[in-house]
Structure formats: structure tokens, C-alpha cells
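Notebook entry, cofactor series.
This is the third protein in the set we're modelling with a bound small molecule. For this one the ligand is zinc ion. I'm keeping the input format identical across the series so the outputs can be compared line by line later. Sequence and SMILES below, as received.
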Amino acid sequence: MGKWLLTIVTALWAAAAFATEPAAILIRHALIFDGHVDTPYAGEVLVVGTLIRRVSHGAMPVEPSLHPEVIDAGGRLLTPGFIDAHVHMGSVLTSGEMAGADPAYVAALEFKGAQAALMRGFTTQRDTGGAIWGLKRAIDEGLVPGPRVYLAGAVLSQTGGHGDDRAYEDVHKRLGGPLSPAERRGEAVLADGVPEVLAAAREQLRKGASFIKVMASGGAGSEYDPLDVSEYTSEELRAAVEVAAGFGTYVTVHSYNATSTRRAIEAGVRCIEHGHLVDAATLRLMAERDVFLSTNLVVYEIAPPGTTPRQMPKFAQIQAAIDPMMKLVRASHVKLAFGTDLVSGLEPQTRQNHEFVLRGKWFTPVEVLKQATSVNAELLARSGARNPYPGKLGVIEEGAYADLLLIDGDPLQDLSVLEHPEASLALIMKDGRIYRDNTAQH
Ligand SMILES: [Zn+2]
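Returned structure with ligand:
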């Protein structure tokens, strides 16, 4: 009899355990930058499970039944988790090193890189080219810590375009040669003509891409295409846009110069990556058509490892264009995403947070923080029906994903505080889960 009673009690207890609320965390005494405000306000945030349940100005009354774990922010700045709009999480070695690397070794580096990005405060990243389907799955399933990932999969490149990494003497696949190294690794597809572009775009969406990335101009990291080169015809660009639209998402293009950028805008792309050589009229067109500019500065400070003599002058050309370009961007009111594009190893990626400081030359700290949070989130939302995380991101609002940072020091006065995230990020939370909590140590 006693045994039966115990069984029943255990069953009831189990049912009750299922019925209770998920874990609650109350962050008290914070100074809240919610992704939108110009001046942060004193307030509190209640997280339940993976979401922000409530945000208050001043103190929040909390129902005792929630039994929240309390974190005292001690007046620190609370921000949404950072978003990087342009990364390559699979670019963990130089392309030369990648050639002989065992896939398990590459995967180990990817895991380490993903964790490091999260610990720098980046709770979401938009991967603009790379075969990191397995990495994204492992992060989403909680196997390894890392940011949420929006991914493009393989980039589409014309023959001789920015995604064509063959050696000079390599024979083209259509003439009996092998796939290019980047094609073998699933990082790029050489697609020429409308039928090949259609197939290549569909292939990425079939694998689960959140958006499509097309190489529309010459680039710094490739050998045979100067920056003034426009890549892909209007018909080819439109083909990619139509495939993406059929899947409810969008195309973004790698594009440096004004001609290639205008051609892409006319074809219906929704975002321009880089854009360093565009003119004022093209930026105005982008603002009018609500096309995002997803630029990056930090990657041009130091040329990535493996940069060749043919690529060096292109890096210099972009470096020289940064100041005039950023002044035009500021005047144009184009929507400016925050991205870094650091490639060819985990060491270059450690400079990710330096992008905040560089932008401080043309934008106020609060403008830069908006770019890295709510503005980037607006770009991510363009994935529409293919958005893998359709809730609110980049903001501290009721119902948003609980991706939160508590910052020691005042980045709204001095962005360089963010350059040392191991010291300045007192709390790192993604999806309501705490990855670092140093709040009690000060
Ligand atoms: Zn890139």
C-alpha cells in the first residue's frame, strides 16, 4: 500500500514539476539601453525561460511564486546581446592551411571560434558565406556554446569572380577541370548564366540558408578581379533575387563600387556588403530604396594572414576609401549594419570588438550600439519566412529573446571599454542561459 502511495505521490510531483514555470531571473538595478533609446534608463528586467517576460522603469514587483534568481546589476549598463552582420565562422584557417586540414580539426576550431565570439558579447551572427551547417546545428541543439547563426551557405560567384579561388593554371570545371577548393569545401559555387545561378541559389535554400549571398564586384581577397569590376549580369542577379523571393527571403551582395551596387539594387537585392567605393548618389538611392549597407572597417586595419602581393594594393585602396565613404554614409541616412568580416583564423577574429572603436570616429557611441543591436536585428528580419529565430532580437523588450549583457564601465562615453570583453562584460546571457556572471565580484 505504502509503495503505491509513493508511486502516486511521485507521479503527482512529476506532473507538478512539468507544470511549473521555467527558471526565472530578475536583473535588478540596471541602467537599460534597450537597443533604441538615446539615453539609458534605470530599470529592471525579468527573464523567464528563454524570453524577456517584463521590463520596468524603476523597481519591478515580482510575483513570489516565480522564485526568481536575482542578479544585482549594481547600476551597470544592460544592453541587448551584440549582433555581427558579417562573419565567416568557417574561416578558421588560411585557405592554404585549409587544404590539408582534417574536417574534425576544422570543426574543433569552428566550435572554439563560436564560443569565443559569444564570450565577446556576440549572441547572434550573420554568416555571409561558408559551409557551417553542422556548426549552426550544434549551437542550436546546445551541443556547443555559440551565437545564433543566420547563414547564407555557399556564396555564388561568376567564373573569375570574388568567390573563384582557383590557382591561375587550374582548368575550369566546364572544361574538364576539378571543382575549385572553395567549391569542394562547400564555401562557394562557380555559377555562370541564369540556369546555373538558379540551381546554385536553390541548392543553398534546400540546405537551409537564411538568405543568399552573391559576389557582385571584385574583392580584396581574390586574385583576378580588381575592385572596379562589376560581376554578374542584371539577368543573373535577378535570377538569384527571384529564387530567394520564392523562398520568402532576400539576396545580399558583396559589392564595392557604384556601378555594381546600382546594378544589384535595380535587380532587387536588399543589402550591400562592404560598399567602400560607392558615391553619394548611390548611397542616396540605397536610402530611398531601403537597401541596407553592411560595411566593415576592422578587417582592413591589418591584412588577413595569407594575403598575396596581388591583393595588398586592393586592401590599401579600400583603407584609403574608408574615411570619405563613412562621411558620405553618415550624411546619406542609409541603414548601416555593424559587421567585421574577420577571416583566415581565430586570431584575427579576436579583433572583433575593435569595430566598435573604429566606428566611433563617425558615429556617437549610442549610434554604434544601435547599429550592433536593433539596426542589425532589422537586417536579420529580412530573412522573412526563412528566419530561423523569428522572435524579437537586438532589443530589451517584452517577449524578446533573453540575449543580454551587463557592462562594467561606460561604453556610451568611451567605446574602447568594449575592446576588452573579458574584463568589461560582467554578464553574458543568451536565450536566458548565463554564460558568464561576474556581477558579484565587484
Ligand atoms: Zn565577407
